[in-house]
Amino acid sequence: YIVSVGGYDHSAGKHIDAGAMAAGLLELEKELEPTMIVMPEAVLLTRQACHSLQVAALMHCGEKMKNRVAILDIWEGYQDRNSMPDCVAAFREGVGKNFLAFGAAYYPWVHTTVVQERDLSYANIDTESRQALIDCILAELVARGVAGNKLEQQSAEVKKINTATTDEDVALLAKSLVNISPFFQAIMGEMARRLNLLPPSGAMAGIYTMVDNARGVWKAPANVSLNSVVSPAVPISHEQQEDLNVTPQGKSVNAIRSFIGEGTLVWGARTLDGNSLDWRYINVRRTMIMLEESIRLAAKAMVFEPNVANTWVTIQAMI
Question: Is the pLDDT reported for residue 11 higher than 80?
Fold first, then answer.
């Protein structure tokens, strides 16, 4: 279920609206089928707005619906924990202490291959910045010693950035610019790198689903590799992972780590309620949700039966 809360357009002072995203949770109260709440765009909000939205998601899961869990991202989770402020400490402080058993968080963000360099061109650059791009490429040609007819031909090709309109012209020009200018190639590479730095909640929803289908909801969604992921944004040592998983506040954060010969693995399956004896593991919480929902839905068949011994025997046998 995808709840639309607006667009990504930042023009004319528009920004992603925390209030609209919170209202999206109200829409999900009408649906009983979803088992996970994922809000990757929450990290585009301010820190305080992101944490408020995550608290609202935990309330939605644990207080109102009681049949789903929230997969949360660490705001600025691409930062090393040694930088100030510590993004994990700020997350633990901002997420509060209510309904923590209904949420799980993952750190750090990941470098992915979702967007390929070939998928990008100068058309992805803001129109107001394209003249600056042209000026830089022309200056690069001169600095590299390109002269004469070759300079004229390549300069004319570069200036087509302002005139090419059809998809075919844009694609051909993008290929030409890659061959003409190493600077342009570097720009495309940096754009792809930044676009591919993503919070992991979407990938984790896929991991949960894959493990559910392959093994069952009772299997911990951990020690599983992430597809289309190059590396974690921050390398984590064994000692650093211990602090993430087990902390005095009990707000466990699951690590995403890279291992030699194995790739990038999810290395933790704890809920945010790490001090709880019952609900510290996400697979235990989700298994109980599955059992409770299965019993509740199956018992609907008996809702108008007479309240007699035979009815209770039937219900017990069914459960």
Answer: no
How much is the pTM?
0.88
Indicate the pLDDT class of residue 83, thresholds 50, 70 and 90: confident
The pLDDT, as a whole number, for residue 259 is 92
Q: What are 115-120's contacts with CB under 8 Å, separation 24+?
A: 115/192, 115/195, 115/196, 116/192, 117/188, 117/189, 117/192, 119/192, 120/188, 120/191, 120/192, 120/195
pLDDT in tens, 237-251: 888 888 898 888 889
Q: From CA 65, how far away is CA 76, in angstroms rounded?
A: 29
User: Which pair of tokens denotes residue 5?
Assistant: 């809360």
User: What band does 30 get if pLDDT is binned at 50, 70 and 90?
Assistant: very high
DSSP string, the chain: ----------GGG----HHHHHHHHHHHTT-S---EEE-GGGGGS-HHHHHHHHHHHHHIIIIII-S-EEEEE-TTTTS-TTSSS-HHHHHHHHT-SSSGGGEEEEES-EEE-SS-GGG--GGGS-GGGHHHHHHHHHHHHHHTT--HHHHHHHHHHHHGGGT--SHHHHHHHHHHHHHH-HHHHHHHHHHHHHHTEE-SHHHHHHHHHHHHHHT-TTS-S-SEEPTTEEEESS---HHHHHHHHS-TT----EEEEEETTTEEEEE--B-S-TT-SSSSBHHHHHHHHHHHHHHHHHHGGGTTS-SSHHHHHHHHHH-
Nearest-angstrom CA–CA distance, 254 and 105: 6
Q: Please state the rounded mean pLDDT for residues 140-166.
A: 88
Mean pLDDT value across residues 57-69: 95
Residue scoring higher pLDDT (166 or 290)? 290
**Count of CA atoms in the C-beta half-sphere (13 A) of 245:** 18
